[in-house]
TrEMBL record, chain B:
SUPFAM superfamilies: P-loop containing nucleoside triphosphate hydrolases. Keywords: ATP-binding, Nucleotide-binding, Transport. It comes from the Bacteria. Belongs to the ABC transporter superfamily. One of its GO terms (molecular function) is ATP binding. InterPro entries: AAA+_ATPase, ABC_transporter-like_ATP-bd, Metal_Ion_Import_ABC, P-loop_NTPase. This is Zinc iron ABC transporter, ATP-binding protein. Residues 7-235 form the ABC transporter domain.
Length: 264, 237
């Protein structure tokens, strides 16, 4: 399997994706942003469609759309009670735009499917480098703001009274999330990105009780998901994203079961 | 040479568009003193604290810290924190959150030492590795206190921190705060509805009322100061 260049590329890219998904995911869960992550993946789809329409690489279109919209969402939903409604509004607008851009291009519908569901065959070595570079940028920014991000995500009341720049932190985090969504879409597709960005971290909460250990467990669970998914996809010729989603769901159910056992 | 106070309020007033919260408030708080702020609901206790924390601008007068605001580190234990049973972090990790800022992602030896020290001080050593979500109300309040203390503040503000605790727990918590106040000369501001608690632990009081304010040594706090607020407080619970 590893003698095939496309599998090598897929494994390399998915390793980076699993690492940043696990790490960013811990903050997504702590900040209750699963719904926004789901929306950003739809926006990623619209961005990719726009990229194809404009003759750009789909990843650039995704980055462009997700970063702009995450900043807009951040501005619109500073108040938590308004957040869900404004996210819904933006998400419907972007899905509509995605459909429009796809219909305006002359590419076949298989292109749309590969954006939505991901495609491992299409990943070139150049894509791998791009994914690696973006992942390193995300990790570096997280390392720099780590202490403040941790405080604001796990104790927003304490962070606010300490006078931390919580609004700026939120915007930076949304941009990091947008970058992660665009990067992760390469393998699992925009429809299932939130699987990697939410489930491993949600499961990790039950196994680990410090932020650093949660990040470690989330990375291990997402690595197991993408590596296992790629392997099973290779064996069966079924979609990789199906296996990734199933594996991560099983991990989550196992985590819930473990928690119930522990609490007796 | 007399030491300068930690904080003075000079003719302080805060006005919201619809009402004057308080006006012409004068107060001096010395280093190492324990001040209790008492008052009815709506008398402006929280507004005053937010003004001290620079979250609200006074409409008149000044708040002055000595030697300056930057030199004074404030540890604040807020009234509400919605941490549910599933809250995942251990008490130890929760305390370390307050060591924030642009620093290396991992804790230095000095920081680990500070966390250990504060865990000992707040009697949390036995449960420090337990998730905070599973802690009792009293343990949670001690963890919040420990988090505020880990940065070694000069001024500790407790904002109704005992409101959700039963009688035993609230005396335990205040006993601990008083011990730290005495041993480390830590200045404390304790906002409360609970007059017996204030009388037992504070050195001085500030009573905020709708028609003004009173201040002085705690022994002078009128017994009936909060007759209506006591009822209001009970209705709260």
């Amino acid at each position: 399997m590893f003698s095939l260049p496309f599998m090598q590329n897929a494994y390399l890219a998915s390793t980076f994706i699993a690492i940043i998904s696990g790490i960013i995911g811990v903050f997504v869960i702590a900040r209750n942003m699963s719904f926004l992550t789901h929306t950003l993946s739809e926006i990623g789809f619209a961005g990719a469609a726009f990229g194809i329409f404009a003759g750009w690489p789909p990843l650039n279109g995704m980055l462009f759309f997700t970063i702009i919209s995450s900043v807009i969402v951040g501005q619109l939903s500073v108040k938590a009670d308004r957040r869900e409604a404004s996210i819904s509004a933006i998400s419907s607008l972007f899905i509509g735009l995605g459909i429009l851009f796809l219909s305006l291009t002359d590419k076949s519908s298989s292109y749309a499917t590969s954006i939505l569901f991901g495609s491992i065959i299409g990943i070139s070595r150049a894509n791998v480098w791009q994914v690696a570079l973006l992942s390193i940028v995300v990790l570096l920014i997280v390392a720099i703001i780590y202490r403040n991000l941790k405080f604001d995500s796990f104790d927003p009341v304490g962070a606010r009274v300490k006078g931390l720049w919580t609004n700026t932190l939120s915007i930076i985090f949304l941009i990091l999330l947008a970058l992660s969504v665009s990067v992760a879409a390469q393998i699992v597709g925009s429809l299932l990105i939130f699987v990697l960005l939410t489930l491993p971290a949600a499961s990790a909460r039950y196994f680990a009780h410090t932020v650093s250990k949660m990040m470690l467990v989330a990375v291990i669970l997402s690595l197991a998901g993408v590596w296992g998914g790629l392997y099973l996809g290779y064996l069966t010729n079924w979609p990789v994203s199906f296996f990734i989603a199933t594996i991560e769901c099983l991990f989550y159910l196992a985590a819930l079961g473990y928690n119930r056992l522990r609490q007796g | 040479m007399t030491q300068k106070p930690l904080l003075t309020l000079d003719h302080l007033a805060v006005r919201f568009p619809d009402r004057q919260v308080f006006q012409d408030l004068n107060l001096t708080l010395d280093h190492g003193h324990f001040l209790s702020i008492v008052g009815e609901n709506g008398a402006g206790k929280t507004t005053l604290i937010r003004t001290l924390l620079h979250q609200l601008k006074p409409s008149a007068g000044t708040v002055r810290f000595f030697p300056n605001r930057k030199a004074i580190k404030i540890g604040y234990v807020p009234q509400f924190r919605n941490l549910d049973k599933e809250y995942p972090l251990t008490i130890r990790d929760f305390i370390s959150l307050n060591l924030s800022g642009i620093r290396l992602p991992w804790l230095s030896r000095k920081e680990r030492h500070a966390i250990n020290q504060v865990i000992q001080q707040t009697n949390l050593a036995a449960i420090a590795q337990r998730p905070l979500g599973m802690a009792s109300g009293g343990e949670k309040q001690r963890a919040y206190l420990a988090q505020a203390l880990v940065e070694k503040p000069n001024l500790l503000i407790l904002d109704e921190s005992t409101a959700s605790l039963d009688n035993v727990m609230k005396y335990d918590l205040l006993e601990l705060v008083k011990k730290i106040n005495r041993e480390q000369k830590l200045t404390v501001i304790f906002v409360t509805h609970d007059l017996p608690l204030a009388k037992q632990y504070a050195d001085e009081f500030l009573l905020l009322q709708r028609q003004g304010y009173q201040t002085g040594p705690i022994a002078n706090l009128p017994e009936d100061a909060l007759v209506s607020a006591q009822h209001g407080g009970a209705a709260h619970v």
